[in-house]
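Before the break, one more example. Copy the sequence into your notebook; we will annotate it together after we see the structure.
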Amino acid sequence: MEILSSMLYGFEVALSWQNILFVLIGVFCGTMIGMLPGLGPISAIAIMIPLSYGMNPASALILMAGVYYGAVFGGSTSSILLNAPGIAGTVATSFDGYPLAKQGQAGKALAIAAIASFCGGTFSIVALMLVAPIMADVATAFGPSEYFALMLLGLTAIASLSEGSTTKALIAAVLGLMVSTIGIDGQTGTPRFTFGSSQLMDGIDFLVIALGLFAIAEVCFLIMGRKQNLLGKASKIGSLKIRKQEAKEISGPIARHSVLGFILGVLPGAGATIASFMAYLTEKRISKKPEEFGRGSLKGLAAPETANNAACGGSFIPLLTLGIPGSGTTAVLLGALLVVGVQPGPMMLQDHPDVFWGVIASMYVGNIFLLILNLPLIPFIARVLYIPRPMLISLIIIFCLVGVYGVRFNTFDLYLLIAFGVLGFLMRLFSFPAAPFILAFILGGMMEQSFRQALTISNGSLSIFWSSPVSVTLFAVALISLIFPLIRKKGHNKSEQEGVKA
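Here is what the structure looks like once it is written out:
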């Protein structure tokens, strides 16, 4: 009864006309910003902070929360239509979203992304209301050794990301790990792989690598095949209608990865990026037709889109109940809360119930707005495919250059973008998958940090990694997930050879 009365109080706050207007502005701006590579939710929320001065704390956080989940929602559009993921959480969306667009099913891909995002977001809001205090305790049970085991589990998925040669996937992953170590070592202050260049001291930004490996490499292939109509049906939007069989096909991934995304979102440091990759890889592993992934699988599109939106809701639990930001975006949100005079933490439920319950209730309204805004606009958004190819190629290049330059206003990043574009082009030309590279780059820094923290706590003893049941379980699952695809692949090859002999 207490939760019910708190929820009703939250809706009372969220459904005032001012807060409804702030939700609408937040999700609309977030969606538009999410579509543009380079302007992710962190930049958008940072821009909004000065506007929050003098605002009611509940209204200020409702506005910025709307920008956050709106940007994650909108980020899928550029991934599907242009293969240019604007934020890390939508990289996995491009694996099957873009192939669907190339097959003339851009409308259907955007509709599935919108519905999956809505379902994932709605589930996370319900779970947020019901289990926020319990999940806060779960989050505190994860220490550095458990996080290292979790990241290792994510890294073992590289075997699943290799469509052809596992060796090539491992080589790509090693390259990604090497690139993640570039820059000043945060613990010792030692420059690593900077070759004396001050430009590399801060490391390489994720956006430079993502846009280089995916968008610029894609542009190179579009230019090469411009006379051969390489895009084929990509200039067609296709129908938005989802058939009964297709709805049945995506219902399982949506249900599974709403839960997975929410749980991973609760863990500080995991967030939407890890959730989307884990969802994609898990779905591929359990699928009866894993060979369809990467070629326009509806399950491969629905799984990461559900998980990244579910993770957004989950990430509010450590922020609001513990005062711990789980990601860069929630760190900026924490700063915004402090600016308006609200201290997140265990006492927030008692001290600021209007902010806590009002923000959660506003997410219901925001998700409905997102669905209403996005579904009818799909035919208009997808018209980007009608743009003449030379102009579209030019626009993609301009978006990439402006997006990368806007992060640090550094021309050196533009050279890096071109370098990674050439690398992405060569990798694709010689059938090296780019997904293991980007996954290893994202996980590499976090793995190293967790590993070092765990060894510091244990005074250098490796026994800390098997002292906790959680980390032992995660290591065991990682080992199984590494070996199982190799055994299955070996068995598949053996049966193929026997078939040829027969």
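The mean pLDDT is 78. The first strand starts at residue 183 and ends at 184. Try to locate both features in your own notes.
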